[in-house]
């Protein structure tokens, strides 16, 4: 077999050739005589590829080297490969005869932005496995938050929230970052970076996390910090949560210079995120700031950064964020060069009971400085998006959180897959060109179905959900797929994502009844792997059995909380904590113990 790169030498094209050679080599008989040409026909816009394969020769052509790689994985999928989760040990690679090689089709991704942003507690392997999985599932971007992902690595290697594991040595974050960025570049994925942290940096802190910093704010920086209640200082001691006085010329100058320096020193970054503090109702109240709005100040700052990048010949895209105070559109300021920017809409307080609905959009509520409440429902969130779209018509995407907290409330993951699919189908109505999912990388208990559906739906929202469910479940659970799907669907129907995410009253007798039923369902469930299933399916069945034990304990704790029995809830939560803590080594890539305990404690109230 030979795989020939027809286009000029390129790392991503060479990687696509290696991948195709490896998978087809395992799939086809050793004497198969096949020659495939990989070719780039450069075109702007969304990823696009054409596959033309016959038993002895063929070609994969793409609009970029990345699109060729996406085409190669898509062709493998059509030939029966199933990439069910991050990690190459969760892939199904069938044996086929050369006569199966009859494919001729073209695909163009429905959306430009199809990415995932790192959250949770992650090992080096978790990050690299996830990046490897992205293009196999149709994604084309990864967001390494902050300047280095140290906070996510620390949570794992120190085993925060898991006292049963002693802290272990952590690889150097810079080295992990370099490896991750090399893996991203090798696949031609778009790299997003930073986000929060700039405000803390302006004030002289590293700000690579949401941690408090015990060092006092330097006197020569004090005038740059937001004035709140007459005082300028760190907000709650946390640099990343502290806003600036954007009327202060030094603060603006330092901010713009920091971003420009970073963009110059990091030419591999495609999308640089310029966010303010990660807290709200803590913006500057000085008389100069009061004469305008935070969004107007933000737009003026972005314009200044754009001018500096242009002067230096840098084409880095800048991402601005609609979030908290910045949900209110600017009154006067407008971006001079919209092409430099992408609008990122982050409806962090949305419900996950329903998908987006563009039909119900109320007016934007009046803005009152440091007295805002976050929009609760989707319609209110969308009102803000419409407001910004009226003043900015450039590139845009949604930054959403179905797998960032709320997923722990869906005990079957079938509901969340459905919400994600529905959301993605409505993105165009919202005028958004894709999604970056802010999420745990280890969102895989009981399986990676929601992440799988997200990647596939972002590439092609017309692929129907039932087909994807069938594809995923039959590959993961073999002949037992109907039993697995019925158990998980039933758990999903009993579940409430919003409750676990901290929305709604904590006392909820109706939900308590549902959680009792979910716990009973889990207790009664016996994972029965079908005869003759291979090692990949055996793994999925093993985890389904474990999931029933984990989800049963979580449901019991939630039932007690919703009944108002907080003592019982606390002791059941402790039991859950010990159980998943002790089992984390075995199920590490699938369940993020740090994060599920963080969410159920700090959001759910367990
Ligand atoms: Zn001010």
How is the topology of this model organized?
Layout (H helix, E strand, L loop, with lengths): L1 E4 L5 H17 L7 E6 L7 E6 L3 E6 L2 H14 L3 E2 L7 E2 L10 E6 L4 E7 L4 H10 L7 E5 L4 H8 L15 H14 L3 E6 L2 H5 L24 E2 L2 E2 L16 H17 L5 E4 L12 H4 L3 H18 L5 E6 L18 E5 L32 H12 L5 E6 L13 H13 L7 E7 L8 H11 L5 H13 L3 H14 L2 H4 L8 H16 L10 H29 L2 H22 L5 H10 L4
Parallel strand pairs: 1-2, 2-4, 8-9, 8-17, 9-10, 10-13, 13-14, 14-15, 15-16, 16-17
Antiparallel strand pairs: 3-4, 3-7, 5-6, 11-12
Helix pairs in contact: 1-2, 3-5, 7-9, 11-12, 12-13, 13-14, 14-16, 16-17, 17-18
Bound molecules: zinc ion.
The site of zinc ion has 7 residues, from helix 8.
Observed structural traits:
single chain, 606 residues, alpha/beta, Chitobiase, domain 2, TIM Barrel, 2 domains, eight-stranded parallel beta barrel, five-stranded mixed beta sheet, 17 strands, 41% helix, binds zinc ion
Helices and strands: which structural class? alpha/beta
Number of helices: 19
Which whole number gives the mean pLDDT? 96
Across the major sheet, the strand order is 8-9-10-13-14-15-16-17
Number of strands: 17
CATH superfamily label of the largest domain: Glycosidases
- Net shape: globular
The N- to C-terminal Cα distance equals 58 Å
Poorly predicted ranges (pLDDT <50, ≥5 residues)? none
Helix content: 40-55%
What is the CATH T-level topology of the largest domain?
A: TIM Barrel
Strand content: 5-15%
Indicate the CATH class of the largest domain. Answer: Alpha Beta
Task: Report the CATH architecture of the largest domain.
Answer: Alpha-Beta Barrel
Q: What molecules are bound to this protein?
A: zinc ion
Q: What's the main sheet like?
A: 8 strands, parallel, barrel
* Oligomer class: single chain
Compute the CA-based radius of gyration. 25 Å
Number of domains: 2
